[in-house]
Design goal:
Layout (H helix, E strand, L loop, with lengths): L12 H17 L2 H15 L1 H22 L5 E5 L4 E5 L13
């Protein structure tokens, strides 16, 4: 399989001819879904570690988003590229169990 430049906004002649050949093959064999499924499965297998990392990051973001949405009045969060810290904006007795000081 040729390596295409995915950062370019233009499409090369090689990419166009590859796409046309791919569609013709799928139409000729009548096995469009089967071929697409096999192609996607191969790509998933090849990039499994990367996809797992993306899924983990997505799960962490969703967890943080849920925490932020559920914050009580008077609380805030601080975000950095590496972590989100929940902090009390004012004194709350022994502190909020969901926040760090």
């Amino acid at each position: 399989m040729a390596a295409f430049d995915l950062t370019s906004r233009s499409v090369s002649e090689e990419e166009i001819s590859t796409a046309i050949a791919d569609v013709r093959r799928k139409e000729r064999t009548g096995r469009w879904q089967e071929i697409e499924s096999a192609t996607q499965t191969a790509a998933i297998d090849e990039h499994e570690a990367d996809l797992d990392e993306v899924a983990t990051s997505r799960d962490e973001v969703m967890t943080c988003a849920a925490e932020i949405i559920s914050l009580k009045p008077g609380h805030r969060y601080e975000a950095s590229p590496d972590q989100v810290t929940f902090a009390c904006c004012r004194s709350v007795g022994d502190g909020c169990p969901r926040c760090t000081r």
